[in-house]
Amino acid sequence: MNHVDAVAMLAVLQFIGFGALVGKARGTYGVKAPAVTGSEPFERIYRVQMNTLELLVALLPALYAAAHYWPSLYVAGAGAVYLVGRIVYWRAYVASPSSRSLGFLLSIGPILALALAALVPALLGKTPI
Amino acid sequence: MNHVDAVAMLAVLQFIGFGALVGKARGTYGVKAPAVTGSEPFERIYRVQMNTLELLVALLPALYAAAHYWPSLYVAGAGAVYLVGRIVYWRAYVASPSSRSLGFLLSIGPILALALAALVPALLGKTPI
Amino acid sequence: MNHVDAVAMLAVLQFIGFGALVGKARGTYGVKAPAVTGSEPFERIYRVQMNTLELLVALLPALYAAAHYWPSLYVAGAGAVYLVGRIVYWRAYVASPSSRSLGFLLSIGPILALALAALVPALLGKTPI
């Protein structure tokens, strides 16, 4: 459980970090709340946060559900790929939104793998470990 | 636990599927990242994904918390209604946003039921099963 | 576990309540779906919901993961601060977006505390309680 908790909390803190970058970008690019448009560089950072939100809500349950059936080290390993994928995504998106594919695949891949790694044994009625 | 894991992972994969539809709609309607506006048909699909994000973040904890107190088959049944409700919502929203009420009620209803099914026994100090 | 479930479900229901306020504001300010812009008062309420979504996706896993290592009463106490913080944030944001800092700090503070309270013991390999 420990490896899974560690990776899950790193994913949460990484997401909060992206949120902090959005807050900072509001100042840098002069985008006052409640607006979220009006500056392309701001919107890029905002979209990184939003895309990470979309993925995090899928990653976290998949991570814990997969850990019901598989050794926590494997599960945490998939989560670690996600963490790296998000950094790649962030750097690419801020530089050029059209170059975001690799980082996206490195983030969505582990999520799909974990979700299927939980779904298949659950459907087959395997006993949780 | 298995039924709950199965329904939870289907909800995660359904959400990822809505995300894939948004990606496809970027191409179809020519909405380049980071923009999320500029084409009504694109915005409809994007709003389905966003609304599902809002509900998924409520559904998943309610599902697992309700399973602390109720048989997993009942809990998973409520989750299955949510899954159908999201399909109804998606089809209605894309056809005409003003017709989205039924699908929304079929999605939010199970979430409220599950959240209360966890909250009430938790407040009463019931022993988790 | 009961205290944690109770606080988690209250956070979920609070978020659904903010969503209901957005739905009501669509009528009050004449913002028809799929639009989410066009009226400043509407956008303020919408941003409260979105910001709460961003925080809830971090709060809930941090709450349950921290409960693996710490007494549930302490964990639930941090969650209760978050719940109050969200009410402060909502009231301040709707009155004046620039006054939202206190409510935000009261919400993000408990989340960071809980995430670290789970991360540190997980990294140290502590046995879950």
Report what the structure shows.
Helix content of chain A is 79%, strand content 0%. Chain A is built from four helices and no strands. The first copy, chain A, is elongated, with a radius of gyration of 16 Å. Chain A starts with a helix and ends in a 6-residue tail after the last helix. The interface between B and C is medium-sized, with 31 and 25 residues.
Total strand segments of chain A:
0
Distance between the termini of chain A: 11 Å
Specify the structural class of chain A: mainly alpha
Name the shape of chain A in a single word. Answer: elongated
Which radius of gyration of chain A do the C-alpha atoms yield? 16 Å
**Helical segment count of chain A:** 4
Largest interface: pair, residues per side: A-B, 31 and 25 residues
In percent terms, what proportion of residues of chain A is strand?
under 5%
Q: Regions of chain A with pLDDT < 50 over 5+ consecutive residues?
A: none
Brief summary:
Three copies of one chain form a homotrimer. By secondary structure, chain A is an all-alpha fold.
